[in-house]
Design goal:
This protein is α+β, with helices and mostly antiparallel strands. It has a single domain, classed as 3-Layer(aba) Sandwich (Aminopeptidase). It has 4 helices and 7 strands, in the order βααβββαβαββ. The strands form 2 sheets. Strands 1-2-3-4 form a 4-stranded antiparallel sheet, sandwiched between helices. The protein has a 3-stranded antiparallel sheet with strand order 5-7-6.
């Protein structure tokens, strides 16, 4: 099974897939329609800037997951930037190390851009991120739930 990681900027044809995943996993029921999420994903993928940047893992040329490098992700903490955001692996492809591959791609992009640290927040994957070097900084109540706010210090670029 050959693996490849591409960006939606390189493969605009993947935007409908990543937008649907982002909407189903993170935005559904939050007041944004699938069309709005798709428009934002399309605009973000077409930008020449460093963020947002969405990475897609392909297995046998089929998309199975995504993760993004984003300037902002948690509206309660606009002071923190940039973020590892929108990590998602399709249910049929889980438990194969794909999330770790996607996180590594985002971290490598951040290192290449000289980013000293990344942030994320999670309600369900704190143990996964801790295993790969992230540390919990605090817990944050948000939208009637409690999330772990995590940080990853990155090495300086070579």
């Amino acid at each position: 099974m050959p693996h490849a990681i591409v960006t939606t900027a390189e493969r605009l044809d993947l935007v409908p897939v990543t937008a649907r995943w982002r909407w189903e996993a993170f935005a559904q029921g939050q007041g944004r329609s699938l069309a709005e999420v798709t428009a934002a994903e399309t605009a973000g993928s077409a930008t020449a800037g460093p963020m947002p940047r969405t990475f897609v893992l392909l297995v046998d040329d089929e998309p199975v997951g995504m993760a993004s490098l984003a300037a902002h992700d948690l509206e309660l903490r606009p002071d923190l930037t940039p973020w590892l955001a929108g990590v998602f692996v399709a249910p049929q492809a889980r438990r194969r190390g794909h999330a770790v591959r996607l996180v590594a791609a985002v971290e490598a992009e951040a290192v290449a851009r000289g980013v000293p640290a990344l942030w994320l927040y999670t309600r369900s994957a704190e143990a996964l991120y801790a295993r790969i070097g992230w540390r919990t900084v605090e817990t944050v109540p948000y939208r009637e739930r409690v999330y772990a706010l995590m940080r990853r210090d990155l090495p300086a670029p070579m």
